[in-house]
Design a protein that fits this description.
mainly beta, 18 strands, Immunoglobulin-like, about 350 residues
Length: about 350
Amino acid sequence: MTVHPAYRSALAAALLLSATPTLAQTPVKSLAQPSVPMSPPVPGKTAPVTSASPYPSSSPVSAPQPQIASIPPAPLPDSAYQQAVDQAEGRFPEMDRVGAGGQIQNAWNDSEPRHGIYATRLCEDCVYKVRTREFMSTTLVLPEDAEITQIDLGDATGFKVQVRAANMVAVRPAAYGLDTNLNVYTKSGAVYPFYLRSEGFNSVHVPDLVVRILGRERPEEITPVAPSVVPAKPGDPAGKAVHDLANPKPAEGDFVRTIAFDPAKLRGWKDYRLWGDDDLKPEVVYRDDVFTYIRYGDKWDGMELSTAYVTIDGIDELVNSRVQGSTFIVESVNPLITLKNGKKFLCLQYGGKS
């Protein structure tokens, strides 16, 4: 870029003046400079000389003053000139600044993919415990048929809560080391009590980013249909099993979908692998296209009814079950079924063809 010499000199002078100390810009009377008389001297007389020095002069005539050479201004560096041009046009250099940092939670380094996601079953008389963390938000997901109408938060200063959807609530703590409670009310009249605790970025625990409550507030209605039974063929090896299953009737008050029973579809007599407590092991396990049949025979007398679960996405889901004669019927053909009775359990894994 070509710059006129006069503009460059003027800019240099402006920069030099701005860099000169204030004291140098203030005129100061020299101590060695004599005063100049206001009128010409009278012939034959010596003109009085007044010195600006505070000390008395020993000579009636002041000494001649030496000539002081003028100092030319220093040349303006090209870098200073270019910087002045850039700044005049608003181009200022960037600043390299480092943030505070040091607040990454190491607990996430080796966490599993499912860590931070907490799923629990719907419970009418339970308090749901939630671990939150500063600088992170947690989403509470109620059952899909729930509709939030109101919320009550114990500490409105330490926690912020917002309803995000009909069955979702977002929670964010303001700091760590706090706890409070949250009650969520739904249209059906249900109350979901939560205990909230906030931890810091240096916590050894991974926080709950999503808390999901599984189940439904109201079970789906199932319309029963008339049963159709296919009679067993003479000499069929499944005849003994058909004896208890030919006319399945649900317990009174149960609304269970009735499906046609076909003995010809029974299979898997030797395709199940069992492990767990011997007290829960049956005589034989088999299945058809709809249900899994667990026959206990005489062992069923005096035995407490177990609860059946199936594993879906790594979570145990409660499944409907019923009893017909000495056969425990699980309304699922999931490859892995778990029976639970107190602290006892029995796993049944199907290895045959679907």
